[in-house]
Amino acid sequence: MLSIVLVDPQIPANTGNIGRLCSCTGAQLYLVGYPGFFITDRHLKRAGLDYWHELNVKTFDRLEDLQELYPENNFYYVSTKATQLYTDVLYTSDDFLVFGSETKGLPENLIFNNPQKSIRIPMVSNKRSLNLATSAGIVLYEAIRQTKPFADRS
Predict the structure, then answer these.
(1) pTM of the model
(2) CA nearest 18: which of 94, 34, 2, 33?
(3) Does residue 152 form part of some domain?
């Protein structure tokens, strides 16, 4: 299954919306590092609506801990600093899509040390970034389009 990884998310409503996205698509949600909220936050659950209880959210202190559990899987790092477009990647059904916090994004060294695994969503110039939940939806649905997990469903 595809996975969304949020590193140090800061806004509970974004994480709630991404949780809802994961529930509706069958994606796994991982929270890494130190969220700027408690997992019981009412804003998180409100944004996730009645889907939040269906999630099996997994938490890790460090991204490296998660990567060690899945050494054969692809981890794609989504960042405005990446040069490769998210549409130029050939996704597989067990890929991890990694997003940084709303305020800091992912560490630059992670992006620059992994250029083949770093991707970006195109935007007009002079803009900082899209909303985290919007970005997660864009990239996840491209991976879904390519891997076609719903092809046999009507």
Answers:
(1) 0.90
(2) 2
(3) no
- Domains in the chain: how many in total? 1
Domain span holding position 22: 3-147
Element (H, E) at 43: helix 42-48
User: Around 66, how many Cα atoms within 13 Å sit in the side-chain half-sphere?
Assistant: 24
Question: Which residue has tokens 């990647």?
Answer: 89
pLDDT tens for each residue of 61-108: 999 999 999 999 999 999 999 999 999 999 999 999 999 999 999 999
Is residue 48 a contact partner of residue 76, using CB atoms and an 8 Å limit? Answer: no
Distance of alpha carbon 7 from alpha carbon 21, whole angstroms? 17
Q: How many C-beta atoms surround the C-beta of residue 73 within 10 A?
A: 13
Between CA 117 and CA 131 the distance in angstroms is 21
Tokens of 54: 């269906």
Amino acid type, 30: Y
